[in-house]
Recover the amino acids of this structure.
């Protein structure tokens, strides 16, 4: 259950101000709150989550736990850097009304975004299939917030700051995972426990 909750929280944090969330908010601001647009965004997010979970499940049997933790820390660090370096996308000048075109753009963004990288990291570190469900729930919640926020979220001036804070949280998670890989957390726990 812990991998599910951890993946949910990390995916939700990583999804705040993410490219797919902002794009959805921009499309809602331009075209109105079409439920079909939210369904497409969540559907492509689910496909990207399954791809990240599948990649992690293929790597788990091949790697020892310390190596998995280092790889997970690297994925979290990349997600944090992505959150810090890549700002919200600019609104498209002529956004299409086509759900298929929107789905292609969403999927292209979601396959390499910080939400899926965080999910991959948790699934790899914990070797738990429940991480995929948590990542899917957290990413979907972030998208729903973007859909509900619409124009307010798309025009939000504090979005860049929120995204930077998310990046810092992801980098902190990467550092914590790296400490576990070194076994330092176990040694500290043994030294302070009676």
């Amino acid at each position: 259950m812990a991998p599910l909750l951890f993946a949910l929280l990390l995916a939700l944090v990583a999804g705040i101000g993410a490219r797919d969330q902002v794009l959805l908010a921009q499309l809602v601001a331009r075209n109105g709150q079409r439920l079909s647009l939210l369904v497409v965004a969540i559907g492509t997010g689910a496909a990207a989550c399954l791809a990240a979970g599948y990649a992690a499940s293929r790597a788990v049997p091949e790697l020892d736990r310390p190596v998995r933790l280092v790889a997970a820390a690297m994925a979290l660090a990349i997600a944090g850097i992505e959150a810090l370096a890549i700002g919200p996308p600019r609104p498209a000048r002529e956004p299409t009304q086509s759900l298929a075109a929107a789905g292609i753009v969403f999927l292209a963004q979601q396959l390499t975004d910080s939400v899926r990288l965080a999910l991959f990291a948790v699934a790899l570190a914990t070797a738990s299939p429940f991480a995929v469900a948590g990542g899917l729930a957290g990413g979907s919640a972030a998208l729903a917030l973007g859909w509900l926020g619409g124009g307010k979220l798309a025009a939000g001036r504090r979005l860049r700051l929120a995204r930077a804070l998310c990046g810092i949280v992801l980098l902190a998670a990467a550092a914590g995972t790296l400490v576990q890989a070194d076994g330092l957390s176990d040694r500290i726990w043994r030294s302070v426990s009676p």
Notes: The first helix runs from residue 2 to 15. The mean pLDDT is 86.
